[in-house]
Amino acid sequence: MEKMARVTTALGGNTLTGRTMYCHLDAPANAISVCRDAAQVVVAGRNIFKIYAIEEEQFVEKLNLRVGRKPSLNFSCADVVWHQMDENLLATAATNGVVVTWNLGKPSRNKQDQLFTEHKRTVNKVCFHPTEAYMLLSGSQDGYMKCFDLRKKDSVSTFSGQSESVRDVQFSIRDYFTFAATFENGNVQLWDIRRPDRYERMFTAHNGPVFCCDWHPEDRGWLATGGRDKMVKVWDMNTNRAKEIYCVQSIASVARVKWRPECKHHLATCSMMVDHNIYVWDVRRPYIPSAMFEEHRDVTTGIVWRHLHDPYFLLSGSKDSTLYQHIFKDASQPIERANPEGLCYGLFGDLAFAAKESLVTADSNRKPYPGDRRHPIFFKRKLDPTEQFESVSSSALSVFETEPDSSSMGWFVDTARQYALAGRSLAELCDHNAKVAKELSRNQVAQTWTMLRIIYCSPGTMPSANLNHSIGKGSASLPLMNSFNLKDMASGMGSEARLDWSKGENRSENILLDSSTTLITNDENEETEGSDVPADYLLGDVEGDEDELYLMDHENAHTEEPEYVLPQEAFPLRHEIVDNPSGPDHLQDKADSPHVSGNEAETVSLTPVESFSLISISHTLYESRLPPDFFSALVRDMLRFYAEQGDVQMAVSVLIVLGERIRKEIDEQTQEHWYTSYIDLLQRFRLWNISNQVIKLSTCRAITCLNQASTTLHVNCSNCKRPMSNKGWICDRCRQCASTCAVCHHVVKGLFVWCQGCSHGGHLQHILKWLESSTHCPAGCGHLCEYT
Question: One biological-process term from Gene Ontology (predicted)?
């Protein structure tokens, strides 16, 4: 693990020499700090508090500050800081809420100097003033910051952030009286130590807790912050309002951030969980780190640059119980493994292509395509002379524009707005969406919705368990034809038909049809029009030279039907009728059957004609519907077809409409990919409501949680300005009603509107009525209220 590269840095009269090295600690570290001469480092944690000397080849333990037979919780440290003016002075933040100072110049074994016990909960951060020897600042989980004068026993100032817990406090390096504080609710506050009653400035920096901050050592107005939202942001405080000038996206929550000495745009970060590496970023190139240290095997809890003017040595402590010194020559460079080529389509069809600058330069003689617009060296930047990695590759960007209106996405927006995904029956949803698609001239999509309605909503479907039995031999996969009636079907058949008794032993009724589609139901030869009841037909070839057609009637599948009789006069006679013809044996047997009437017996005695068709009707053998999964494979392939064609709108819409009928046929990862793609398109077109509806109707866990983040609203009491609890309308601290209407003076339990300038407000209707006659605040504070 040890690397043999060695670096020597001259800093005035001092010289820093060393290599990448580490040492094992007795317990996990929570924080580290280095003394001003860069020769020693202190490591603090719940069960460790030691000082190590940084030698050229190794770390050497110098002092163990945990002394005594039964160490108290004062030795359990959440943070530690070494004074940069007095090398004998340390301060720690204890997990029991105590702030402890340590004097290394004491002759006794116990170096503990002072105890400050004013905080009620864990102290998260302590910080010495950079130029004032006796000033110490602390931030606690109880929401308070306290400033201590080490010459006094108690704190000299208490600052209330009127918010949740304080996660970090840092004195400004350039402004003597200013310090910054970060909070659990995502806010950053700037305070003047001379005015403890109210902060100077406050702004929301992150979506979630802000875990750390650090002032730039050279530019007095730059403040870097890191939070749970996996972002590092750089703010310019020189303007009237805090301005975000850089943003770096990491892959995990940011626990620590430290500006790199002598490099204006570089900073180092480590994560609170998941990611164990330490990254050094150039904020001008925020998508890939400039350097990465991968030595730790558990979460990195503390990072610090060894010297204020040396950018090459970095110290770190971790929960893996190791202390490391990193040097930049041993750092890995992710840029070397990055792909310099990229391809992306724009929202309106423009194509952007990035490639190595050398490739684009070599292709300078290429004839431009129509609509080609080149931005030479779009990503190239001037390299910093002090940067270690001078061989950073650059890319050139080419943009190919499409013709105006050649790829309009109006159909996508109109479809998204008009589609119905829930709130109706499946048949109504399919019909409505088919109509929408047809009106937009998307005929294939309209036909797909129509077919889905026929498949899942038509009454003429049958269970697959009986399918093979009904088809017979040699017809295992025959097509299904929906919504035909006897009248339509009869005209397509031959003029003769016969009854095949050998395949109908288990059927209760059998009938014969002629080409005129008339049914004779009485002995007087009355003609009755054929039934229009929808039925399903299975067409196909059977063994031999015969064609079979099985017709299933589902309207009365389980009821007793009258026995139909077809007399001889129903057919055109082509031969002499014999009173007692000799027919095939199997027909004679059936004629003697007790289930066959006399007229039927006479009918079947007809001599068949070659090339005929057979129709059989079954009422009791088949169920009324196919199982829902009979067409699942077909629908699944259809969804994949649309997704591969780029129409994720259709794929997602069918997924939502069909629900459990098809969801199990497609793996969760594929569904999530379709949903995220469709939601991204909706949001790019600013269809926020439709996007939220899709998220709500989704069945993927990773999708349904997208609109459940950042839904908490923190409310402060309008009287004492303290955070409100989640119970009731009475403030726990001042015992006053928190949200009272400035007009009627009653508690507002519905819609509440307030002025962001003076914080007064009330019922929406009351405020609207008040503003009709006056622009001043109804509470009498004199403010000219503005409502948006």
Answer: negative regulation of TORC1 signaling
